[in-house]
Amino acid sequence: MSISANVHGRSVAILYDVAYPFVYGGGQRRLYEVGKRMAALGWNVHWYPLKAWDGDCTLFRDGIVYHGLRERTSLYGTNGKRAYAEALSYGRAVLTARVDFASYDLVWCAQWPLFHILALIARLVPWRTRLLVDWWEFWGRYWLTYAGLPGLGGWLLETALTKTLGRIGHVIVDSEVGRDRLLAVGVPSDALTFIPNGVDLAGLAAGGSAEGSSDLAYLGRLKGHKNIDHIVRALALLNRRDSTRLHLDLIGDGPERVRLEELAQTLGVADQVTFHGRVETYRANALLKRSKVFVHPSTQQCGGSMNLLEANACGLPVVCYRHPMGIDPRHVLEGETGLMVSPAEPESLANGISAMLRLVAAKDVRNRCLAHAKSFDWNATAEHYCELIDNLLGGSPGRFAIPRAELQG
Fold it and tell me: Cα separation of 216 and 292, whole Å?
């Protein structure tokens, strides 16, 4: 039986292969936070991911109707990178789905894993309804570093899709770095909007810190490009150089965990690192609050970082790399909410950690971080989206004010 949109109110179909809260991650969290706020405003919100939950293929949660298109394959391969099979599976699922996506007022996609956008184009959806695409990371030449010669195909596909979407849809980026990169490859400025990430300010403010204390914290997936091993190596460097034995909370799980545990043993810092694994949101927040500095050494961030904002909202300054594929420097107030260091190697990270700990001891960095984070809230992010969507659909600008009293978290 064909599934179609409920046409009694404005309707949106979200297309992304993984769905929050069934699969944790920054991209799906952004879609979820905005989507549930749209639902609270009366939108019919439907999400079409690969099925990642038990039971019926269709379920309702937090105002969103989730439709599992088919059983999903493993999201990551044995090397910790996105699995090609999963990407192709989702593209095929969108292409063959018995869903009239064009019956929705808006189809809203995230860029990954690319093939679903091709499927929508093949089904002529962008010419039959409005298409909005979140393009969080533009890799360009980095495709060759990531995948070698096969990465050339990803580079060409990425470039072709962004240029095409600039003509047949509208593109959203989460950082000014991302906007600059898309403008550079020819995406028209009037087809491009910058909307930053948000944080759950009310949820992060609630609750105290976890028991005990820690010096450093990292929150996120334990994957190769996150360079968590650099933090472990920086601990060993600081032990030898300054006789400083810092404690690190590693919050999250992923394919690098076993290797990181072995590295900590080899370097003699195993007693300084606590592997918490994946924990509930309230617990992650409490662990952040018991630390002094958030360390974020990713070199594949491509501009935006939700975890950086969450750390600031918990009062933690960040130490991160200044890298072409790293965090947008405009997200860090140097010497106030964080420090950016280079080159991307453990010694630089160790120097940054030492300097940031001195700043924390000397001035009120915590309150500066909290004040900075107040500029980023999911309600404000959702308002940006709703204003843009209203303009794209020809509505009356400004009528989508988020009811803050009803939407906390």
Answer: 6
Domain with CATH 3.40.50.2000 in the chain: 11-198+377-392, 201-373
Task: Tell me how far apart the alpha carbons of residues 369 and 309 are, in angstroms, rounded to a whole number.
Answer: 9
Show the tokens assigned to 198: 């948000």
What's the CA gap between 66 and 56, in Å, rounded? 10
In this predicted model, what pLDDT tens digit does every residue of 14-36 receive, in sequence order?
999 999 999 888 899 999 999 99
DSSP collapsed to 3 states, 119-159: HHHHCCHHHCCEEEEECCCCCCCHHHHHHCCCHHHHHHHHH
Q: Per-residue pLDDT tens for 172-223?
A: 999 888 899 899 999 999 999 999 999 999 888 888 999 999 999 999 888 8
Distance CA 356, CA 133 (A): 37
User: What pTM value is reported for the model?
Assistant: 0.86
CATH of domain 11-198+377-392: 3.40.50.2000
Enclosing H/E stretch for 248: strand 248-251
Beta strands at 58-61 and 64-67: parallel, antiparallel or unpaired: antiparallel
Q: Which fold has domain 201-373?
A: Rossmann fold (3.40.50)
**How does strand 106-110 pair with strand 11-15?**
parallel
| Structural contact between residues 52 and 71, judged by C-beta atoms closer than 8 angstroms | no
